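Suppose you are handed only these lines of text.
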Amino acid sequence: MKLAVLAGDGIGPEIVGQALKVLRALAQDGLKIELEEAPFGGAGFDAHGDPLPEATLKLARAADAVLCGAVGGPKYDALPRAQRPEQGILRIRKELGLFANLRPAVLYPELVGASTLKPEIVSGLDLMIVRELTGDIYFGEPRGRRQNASGAREGFDTMLYSEPEIRRIAEIGFQAAMKRRKKLCSVDKENVLETSRLWREVVNEVGKNHREVELSHMYVDNAAMQLVRNPRQFDVIVTGNMFGDILSDEASMLTGSIGMLPSASLDARSKGLYEPSHGSAPDIAGKNLANPLATILSTAMMLRYTFSKDEWAYRIEAAVKDVLAQGYRTADIHEAGSRKVGTSEMGDAVVAAL
Ligand code: IPM
Ligand code: MG
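From them, the structure of the protein bound to 3-isopropylmalic acid can be written out as follows.
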């Protein structure tokens, strides 16, 4: 198994460092994995003037899976769009055809107090957002800036989905639901957008081949509300790139901390890029404060989805549950009475639990 490791910026190197500790520990137990690191995001720009340097893309293409930390930071905010770190992640998704983004939001019982919602609303929460990742307003053309007839500046983007793009992500949504509680909620803005009208039509068509799954539709504004009103009504949510971006951040907070949430971005053959759902947190970078569990849990998703090594994935997940049960907490999930630890101590605790 060949893994490209793109630590990126901010807390990226620290949290990826902990995930690598975990993989090395498993390697000692017989997991056969080769790692190679390359600069990416702001670090790619610093090294080669490009957030996705040619050599990094080549390595990612040759690998079976990619592990990413996070990208971005204030240092790069003033760069032109093409050179910004975020462009690195958007391009690698597109170049590798990683159209299916799986973002589970699971509340660990030990962390129920860390959620901003009442325990009776969130305890037992276990939902999965399936976000389309290579289309929509993120990539639609034309886009740009211009002056209108009266000389005012205008900015414009194009929200666009083609039928095959909708079909394949809907298919992933139904498959995910089949492995879970067999409920799929497709989120759109069909009352306003043409894109969403097509989206709903195609999802309904795909649903005809998946009658066992209970399919529902929801407008995105209502979905945003329902996620905080009664989040346990959801099993799998399937939605477009931008709505999924927004709703997945919202869903993450239900679980206490975005620092707990892994993600997988898959192509049609389950090659994947794995990264925490959170960003590069420049304010705490280098301070040994970041929560490495989202990245560690992302390696579990990698073993499950790309390598079909469920047992190894389960071992990592069990070790994470174990350290939480032992009371270890990074600052983001710390509560009175728990054992507050830093990034690297948390990594060590997971290795010990393994
Ligand atoms: C995410 C992030 C990215 C996105 C940014 C960094 C481009 O917010 O993965 O959710 O919008 O997709
Ligand atoms: Mg986001």
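What can we learn from it? Residues 245, 249 surround magnesium ion (ligand 2) (CB under 6 Å). The CA atoms of residues 174 and 209 lie 9 Å apart.
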